[in-house]
Amino acid sequence: MDINEELKKIIVKDLFIEDITWDEIKDDAPLFGEGLGLDSLDAVELVVIIQKHFNVEIKDMDEGRIAFQSINSLASFIKERQPL
Amino acid sequence: MNRNAAVAITGIGCLSAAGMSLKENMDSLFAGRRNVAPPKRFSSSHPAPYPVFEILEDLFPARKLKNEDISRTCSLGLTATIEALKDAGLEPEGMTGLKAGVCIGTTVGSTMNNEEFYREYCNGMHPDMAIIERFINSNPASVIAREFSLSGPCQTVVNACSSGTDAIGIGASWIRSGICDMVIAGGADELCRVTYNGFISLMISDDNPCRPFDRERKGLNLGEGAAVLILESDNLILKRKKKARAFVLGYGSACDGYHLTAPRPDGRGLKNALSDALMDSGKTSGDIAFVNAHGTATRDNDRTEVRVLREMLLGIPFLSTKGYTGHTLGAAGAIEAAFTVGCLESGMLPANAGFTELDPELGASPVTDVTGISQKIAISDSLAFGGHNAALVIGLERE
Amino acid sequence: MGIFINGIGVVGGFGSGVSDLVTCLEKSTTPLKAQGTVYGPASLADTSHLEVFVPKKSLRRIDHFSHMAILGAYLALQDAGMPSLTGTRTGLIVCSGYGASHTTFSFLDSVINDGDACASPTLFSNSVHNSAAGHISILLKLGGPCLTVSQFEMSVPSGLLSACQWLQEGRVDQVLFGAVDEYCDVLGYCWQRFFGKHNNRIMTPLSLDRQSALPGEGSAFFLLSRDKGDSLKHVSIIDISIGNLVNEDVPFPRDAVFFLGADGHKRCDRLYTNLIPPGTQAACYSPLYGSLPIGPAFDMAIAALSFKEGKIFASPESVADQENYSIIKRNSPIASRSISCLKLGKEGELGMITLAPGS
């Protein structure tokens, strides 16, 4: 499974997204605000999710803001930092 | 019912990391002492040790308790109550016949979240049921009512971080309406791993001592403690020939209806709570000497709170005392009400610990040095998870 | 006191909404067989009806505990004719004995299974006792005072006192007052440890030598105001007494019918025996909703429905008959009596809510 697909599935499951399936999430669509409609609580949950599934730490929400822009940006962030 | 009637505060008890009595706490505040360090009574596996404001002294209430197998939160609450009753000149055994109520705010104190029990249960082991029995016997308000054989209204308020403020406001309404002559009102909460991990997971904890209202603030430090105010009816204080230390002049409560963990950016709930409290008291902003703010040192809370204070109470000194106690959750509002009385009585405000640099986004600084005050009325406010907001107007005089 | 009940919403093992509860009362049985859980039968609530009021998307991340509370709140508003709350001074009070216990343990799961650094912030936020009130205030866009009370079996009388105080002092014009408690497996496990294993599916309250309580869950909400409302059958709260049997005598209203909160816990059920004045008429409905700290809220709902329907419903047959006072086992005229809902706690705490036809 490629990382984008994995991320989409995890997000739909662990953030309890009801009205959209994982394959409907576009790689470059905004995750927060208008896009998937995630909020600040989802953001901190996503930090924990990334730590749990990929063992990558997001130190603060300044880092988070950059990483969480879209599935693509999140995937890049993880690939850059994932322990080998 | 006279909603604008002042309710007498005749005794206060307070314990936190800053001291084991109200006097010790006030001394620490004015001396600028901060007892903050990584937790000693529990451990965690976080790489960064987030510091806390822990009470390291043993709790020895100066009496043999009816039931000693109670939670730490209840022990904190009882210790504060014993100090408050003594301060009010009320004999613990001499309260029969009084219409006496108990209203205590808490967060941890009401939750069955014993990790040791749950781990054993999950592992298919046979956990000790004494832990559950202790939980059932540890409702903070009930424990106090049972200890002193009080049979009036009894209520544990679980409004998260505004519980202590709400409990005092509710207790005051019991006096005003005549259903109680005396109310033991306050809040208590212990430190525990569950809340420690919970607030860290929300990324609103600071891994250094907290900096309320500071430009570089990163979040809160948890604390533990309790405070109790003895509220009395005019009839009772006349009969006992007791002088009130201070008065609850007003109480306001309002919710944001916005988000479970973030305050409403426009601060609508806090504004309504403050307006209601002022209206309840019959006072205006011009009468207010200072505001004991909620000031948790999270980015969101401090931003919203200062926006509201600047709108409604512009130019009035404000400070957070959480730099001395940490955020004591359900106890916070009560501890801060106690500190508000302490500051009014001494005519001085302590410095807002942890503040060094103005945040231009906030546009206002808290009190930075020990400062004299001359007016006799102040506000203490709280903002809570769930979008609850509460405020008390407290004064040294009845009118 | 001049406090009127304008709307009632109930959720429990009997179904959701007052008509499900009335159907259950008419049949005088537990229509929903106590469902099997890992630790034996329990009376569990289904909240699927909530989708009628709130789109699924808005219920994201909200747990079963809050679902029950939200559904109860909407049902109460629906029963009151769905008044607009915009611009009103509406207070919100939620009472709960145990809070969001399932979510509390789920949060502990996240810590135990994945380590402190992987504790779930969503679960933590929802585990806080006032999460249900928070969700209700967000969905209904409330802006008035808000309170959550946790006092085990005395949660409902204690919280109701605050609701009435707010109305009497003019702090609000109406209060959405409710109570919610949920079942979780840890609770079931604790019951089994305390009371032993059993397959009993019918509660027999007041049979003093038997432990027959079954855990229940659900919510009961009321829209309260100083205004009688449009309904012809007004129901008002005329008294709330909170005390302790150990410390004082509690005056009981004369000519009241008592709804007893006995729920099959033999230690507590025994306390009612010596307390109820001889010759009194009483009823007990706990077999219809199970044993849970907020039981008094269901009794209050049934009392209000009794006035609206003009009769005292028969208690379930499984409630044990008593020597000194009678348990009403047939539908009976209510006449002009008041109804006092009485709940006793194991340490002798007493909470009594008295209702009467409004005037």
Which helices and strands appear, and what pairs or packs with what?
The complex is a heterotrimer of chains A (84), B (399) and C (359).
Chain A: H1 3-14, H2 40-54, H3 61-67, H4 71-81
Chain B: E1 7-15, H1 22-31, H2 72-87, E2 100-105, H3 115-122, H4 130-136, H5 140-147, E3 154-157, H6 163-176, E4 182-189, H7 193-201, E5 225-232, H8 234-240, E6 246-255, H9 268-281, E7 290-292, H10 299-312, E8 318-319, H11 322-325, H12 332-346, E9 348-349, E10 371-372, E11 377-384, E12 388-395
Parallel strand pairs in B: 2-3, 2-4, 7-8, 7-11
Antiparallel strand pairs in B: 1-5, 1-6, 4-5, 6-12, 9-10, 11-12
Chain C: E1 3-12, E2 15-16, H1 18-27, E3 35-37, E4 40-42, H2 64-79, E5 90-95, H3 101-114, H4 121-127, H5 131-139, E6 146-149, H6 155-168, E7 174-181, H7 185-195, E8 218-225, E9 235-244, E10 256-260, H8 266-275, E11 281-283, H9 295-309, E12 311-312, E13 326-327, E14 332-333, E15 338-344, E16 349-357
Helix pairs in contact in C: 2-5, 3-4
Distance between the termini of chain B: 17 Å
Number of domains of chain A: 1
- Categorize the overall geometry of chain A: globular
Q: Looking at this structure, what is the CATH superfamily of chain B?
A: Thiolase/Chalcone synthase
Percentage of residues in strands of chain B: 15-25%
Shape of chain B: globular
N-to-C order of helices and strands of chain A: HHHH
- Per CATH, which architecture of chain A? Orthogonal Bundle
Q: Which percent range fits the helix content of chain B?
A: 25-40%
**What is the CA-based Rg of chain A, rounded?**
12 Å
Rounded mean pLDDT score of chain A: 90
| Parts with pLDDT < 50 across at least 5 consecutive residues of chain A | none
Query: What's the CATH architecture of chain B?
Result: 3-Layer(aba) Sandwich
The average pLDDT of chain B is 95
